[in-house]
Each structure stands twice: as structure tokens, then as C-alpha cells.
Amino acid sequence: MSLKALVWRVPSWTVPLIAAVAVILMPVVGIESNVQRQLVLICILALIVSGLNLSLGYAGELALGQAAVYAGGAYVSGYLGAHGHTELLVQLAAAVGVALLIGVVTGIPGLRLGHWSLAMVSFFLVLLVPDLLEMFKDETGGSFGLSGIFPATLFGHTLDPREYCIAVTVVTALWLLVLRNLVRSRHGTAFRVLRESPVLASSMGISVFRMKFAAYAIGAIPAGLAGCLFANLDHFLAPSSFGFKLAISILAASILGGSASVYGAVVGAMLLQLGPLESTDFQEYALVVYGLLLLVGGVVLAKGIAGLLELAGKRVERRWFPRPRSAPYAGDLLDGVDGVALDVAGVSKTFGGLHALSDVSLTAAAGSITALIGPNGSGKTTLLNMICGYYRLDEGAIRLGDGELSRVPYKAARAGVARTFQTPTIPPGISVGEAVRSGRYTTQHASFLSAVLRLPSYRRARARDLEESRRVLALVGLADLENEEAVSLPLGTRRLLEVSRALIAKPRLLLLDEVASGLDEDEVDRLAELIRRIRDAGGTVVLVEHNFRLVLSLADKIYVLARGEILAAGSPAEIEAHPQVLTEYLGVKAPEAEQLLQAGGVTEGGQHE
Ligand SMILES: Nc1ncnc2c1ncn2[C@@H]1O[C@H](COP(=O)(O)OP(=O)(O)OP(=O)(O)O)[C@@H](O)[C@H]1O
């Protein structure tokens, strides 16, 4: 076997495992006590930053409350330690409990209110820490700090500083393993989808609130662990350790290290802990420097240092170790394309005083292509959004098959509605295969725990994801691009990728929103062929399109919208010969329309000859 093939047989966790063992061995073989202390502090900071990375870097929610959760974990452990409950495992469990409690209590209102609320709620939480500690000064020591914390024990054995350092590195390594398994699973891709676009996430059946809440609550866990480990380091806790400066330094470490990366948390923590900022000369300027680091990091190092390392790694991979391609898919490419009828009955929608849709009715039969055309602003996208559940109905009803479609977007998606977007929406940092597989996220359940522990239920879902992505990529003709970075593909390929992401969910209704715009002639032909195959296999396709020639060649039935009303409906031949369509939609003056109809000429894009 060649070296290149051998490289891909080595499990991807080998390198981090070797690094973790090396770090854990450092205190085992013996290092100076000040180096031990630095190592513990790096681990503690890396833990806190890793939590922020999950909520900010992966799920896209700025939550600044890690410092407060850290304080919660520290004071609970410190209180236990000062009252003789020194068992480290018990303290860690208590700290995780408190972290989750704080995560839940602040996460629910913060996320429910939306927009910047979580950032604000979590920020105020940090400002509240000194007051809360003062309020409970009998337990926390208030502004004097909490002293008298007994050294931690493990199964009754009191840990000396060297053993404690080993314990801290083991806890950190285990947590980073948990996080790695989570973000490298289908849940990690779903978090990235959410970060890229909540609208996209809900169109794939993902509950935006639940997913963001999960990221925030899980992200609180390592901050709680870090608090516990910190409380047992100096056996003393002072409120000044948990203030605004810490919150900013966590953010700076996350941005600099790379927020969309597990290892970025370690890199960021090392930079901040070992850099000159921790020296006493720099302490008074630390806040200013952290602020500058945030600005510079945000602008120059968009993906942080871990992002740069990843880029270099990918270059080496592409140049020297190209990933072997999967075997061609041998099964039925159109498996599961079973559409059901869509029935839109008397739907109206106003935005303020604007009638975007007035009493619109249409049906789309299974095994047919139904096109929706109309001038800009006529209400096409609004109608698609109504079907997907993004807007409430002012009047009317929308049914899919036998049931009324939910007005909650992720529920409508789970009922079988899949769509593409006018501008392809694809998260950065994932491959074509991962982007396509994200479309199956809610069609097969595998819990967070099963992903973290790589349980059989997770492995089954993963195997099925891989199989299905090979199927749809072969169907749309992108099988060779499975391992390419999705976001950097040309527009035409990204559009096909969106179609495959919609198809992998085995939709009962496929909505294609201006899927041909920006494509060259060859790409349009390939796309048309694909849409026909989906229709012929029994799919229900609704096509919103400006390319009139494509619509005429593809559609079984065409609806023309103008100013929010159905202007005409019929077969392509009927629509092509409809004088009002020519005048309203194609902008032809009435006398010319008569001549044009007699000459029989309409060209692509709705221009008349
Ligand atoms: N969320 C919204 N709030 C207010 N007005 C809206 C909203 N969405 C759409 N509209 C308005 O409703 C009308 C229909 O818009 P819509 O985007 O559905 O048209 P369209 O036919 O899809 O146009 P295009 O072909 O340019 O995409 C427009 O006047 C638009 O400004």
C-alpha cells in the first residue's frame, strides 16, 4: 500500500491524542513548579475559551457570560472545598451542575428575545458577579475573597501540586475530546449551518432556538469545569479574578486562536497565558491590548491562528495526500423522490399597507413541475416563504398531501418541504459531502451523547448519511467534488449542491427559487435535465424562475403572478399565448403583443424579439 493511501487509514484523532499524551506526561516526568502552574492556567483558559468557541465560532451566538459561569463553578467548588468536601470528582460534578443551571437560566430569556439579547444578558451577568458575591458574602467571603479551601483529593488521596497538574491536563484533554467528537459530527455541521443562516437551518428542519440553546448550554460546561480547577489551584478565590478583564481576555483568546476550532481554544489560551500580557509590566495596559488584539484579530486573522494552520494543512493534503474518492454509487439514484400534492388556497399576505399576496390559489401535483413566474416584486418569494412557514397567513390555507402545513419553518421542513435559495447559502469550512449530508440532519436522529461517545446509533446515522450523500452527489453529477470545500465552488456548482442538499432529505415538495440564475447555458441544460428526472421519478417540483425559455421548456403548469395576484395559469402553450402575460410580465406594449403572438417569438429572460 502506498504512503498516500496509508495516511488516510490513520484515524484523524491520532495526532491530537499524541499531543494530549505528551502534555499529560510533562508533569509525570517532572517539570518545574512554575511551568506546572503555567500549564494548569493554560488548561483552565483553554477550557473556558472552548465553550465560547462552541457558541460563538460554531453556532454564531455571541455569549460573553463564560466569566460568570467560571465564577459559579469556582465558588461552588471553593465552598465545598472549604467545608471539607474535597473530592475533585464531586466538585467537578457540582461545578458542571451550576454551569448548566446558569446556562439554562440566562440562555432561555437571552435566546428567546433574539438578536443581541444573549450577548447583553450574558454581559450583564459578568457585571453582576461582584454584587452577587457580596450578597452571599457569608458563603463567598464577599470582597475579601474565599479562603481556607482544603487541597483537592481524588478517591480520598490528597493531590500534591504535580498530581493536581496531571489531573487538570487529563480533565482538559477529555473535555477537548468530547468537544472534538461533537463538532466533527453531524451536530457540528448543523451548528455551522445555524451560524451561516438561521433561515437555512430552519429550512432543513432544525429548530433554531433549541440548537442555539444547546450550543450555549454545552458551552457553559467547560467554564464550570475550569472554575472548579481554578478554585483548587491556589486554595483562595478573589472576586477580581472573574471580572470584565477576564471576559475580554476570553474573547481575545477565542478570536486570536480561532473561534471555529477546538484547537484554536488551546492556541488562544497559550498565546494569552505565555505572551507578555501576563507579565506585571503589561498588566495595567492589558485591557487596551486585548481590545487591540480583538480589532486586529477580527480584521486580519478572520479564522484565527488555528484557521491559518488548517489552511496550511489543507494545502499539504491537496498537494501531497489527496483524499481517496469513494466508490461510485451503484443503487437507485432517484430513490425516495416521492412527491405529494401542494394545495395553496386563497392565501393573502400584507406587510404594513402593502398587499404582497391577495387571494392566491395554486396547486402543484405530484410528478409535475409547477412554475411560478412574474415581474420583480410580484410576490413569488413571499409565496415560497409562506409555504415554508416563515410568514403567518393573513387568510387562506396551505396543505401538503393530507395535512395542513405548519406555520413553524422547521416543522414545515420536517413535514417534507425542502428548498433552495436565490443566493446559495452554504456554510464556510465544510466539504461538499458535509454540506449535502447536513440536509439529512433531522431525517435520522442521533443524540449529542451518541455523537460524543460514537455510539452505534451515531455510527448508523453516519453510515447512512455517507451512503445517501454519495447517492445524491452522483445524481447531480458532483460525485468527484465530495471532498472539496463547498463554499469556494463556482456558482453553478453551488446551486447543484443546494439541490442535492434538498434532495437528500427525500422531500415531498421541492421548492427551487431562481435556481438557474447566473448559470451558463450548459449548466442550465444540466439543471433542466436533473429537474425533469426528479419530476419523472414522481417528485413535486415548484419552480420560481425568471428564465422564461427554461420555464416554457420545463413546466407542466405555469402560474403568473402580478402585483400579488394570479394573472394567468395554464400550460406553457397557453401562457406563451396569453396577451396579458406579454404586456404585464414581459413588458410588451399591447399592439406589439398582438404582432408578437402572430410571429410567435419570445426569447430567454422574457425579452421580446
Ligand atoms: N418581509 C417583508 N417585509 C416587508 N415587505 C416585504 C417583505 N417581503 C417582501 N416584501 C414586499 O412584498 C412584495 C413582494 O416581494 P417578493 O420578494 O415576494 O417578490 P418577488 O416576486 O419574489 O420578487 P423578485 O423576483 O425580485 O425576487 C415586494 O413589494 C416586497 O418589497
UniProtKB/TrEMBL annotation:
<dbReference type="InterPro" id="IPR003593">
    <property type="entry name" value="AAA+_ATPase"/>
</dbReference>
<feature type="transmembrane region" description="Helical">
    <location>
        <begin position="38"/>
        <end position="56"/>
    </location>
</feature>
<feature type="transmembrane region" description="Helical">
    <location>
        <begin position="12"/>
        <end position="31"/>
    </location>
</feature>
<feature type="transmembrane region" description="Helical">
    <location>
        <begin position="246"/>
        <end position="273"/>
    </location>
</feature>
<dbReference type="InterPro" id="IPR051120">
    <property type="entry name" value="ABC_AA/LPS_Transport"/>
</dbReference>
<feature type="transmembrane region" description="Helical">
    <location>
        <begin position="88"/>
        <end position="108"/>
    </location>
</feature>
<feature type="transmembrane region" description="Helical">
    <location>
        <begin position="164"/>
        <end position="183"/>
    </location>
</feature>
<feature type="transmembrane region" description="Helical">
    <location>
        <begin position="62"/>
        <end position="81"/>
    </location>
</feature>
<keyword id="KW-0472">Membrane</keyword>
<dbReference type="InterPro" id="IPR003439">
    <property type="entry name" value="ABC_transporter-like_ATP-bd"/>
</dbReference>
<dbReference type="GO" id="GO:0005524">
    <property type="term" value="F:ATP binding"/>
</dbReference>
<keyword id="KW-0812">Transmembrane</keyword>
<dbReference type="Pfam" id="PF02653">
    <property type="entry name" value="BPD_transp_2"/>
</dbReference>
<feature type="domain" description="ABC transporter">
    <location>
        <begin position="342"/>
        <end position="588"/>
    </location>
</feature>
<dbReference type="InterPro" id="IPR001851">
    <property type="entry name" value="ABC_transp_permease"/>
</dbReference>
<keyword id="KW-0813">Transport</keyword>
<dbReference type="InterPro" id="IPR043428">
    <property type="entry name" value="LivM-like"/>
</dbReference>
<keyword id="KW-1133">Transmembrane helix</keyword>
<keyword id="KW-1003">Cell membrane</keyword>
<feature type="transmembrane region" description="Helical">
    <location>
        <begin position="213"/>
        <end position="234"/>
    </location>
</feature>
<keyword id="KW-0547">Nucleotide-binding</keyword>
<feature type="transmembrane region" description="Helical">
    <location>
        <begin position="285"/>
        <end position="309"/>
    </location>
</feature>
<keyword id="KW-0067">ATP-binding</keyword>
<dbReference type="InterPro" id="IPR027417">
    <property type="entry name" value="P-loop_NTPase"/>
</dbReference>
<protein>
    <submittedName>
        <fullName>Branched-chain amino acid ABC transporter ATP-binding protein/permease</fullName>
    </submittedName>
</protein>
<dbReference type="Pfam" id="PF00005">
    <property type="entry name" value="ABC_tran"/>
</dbReference>
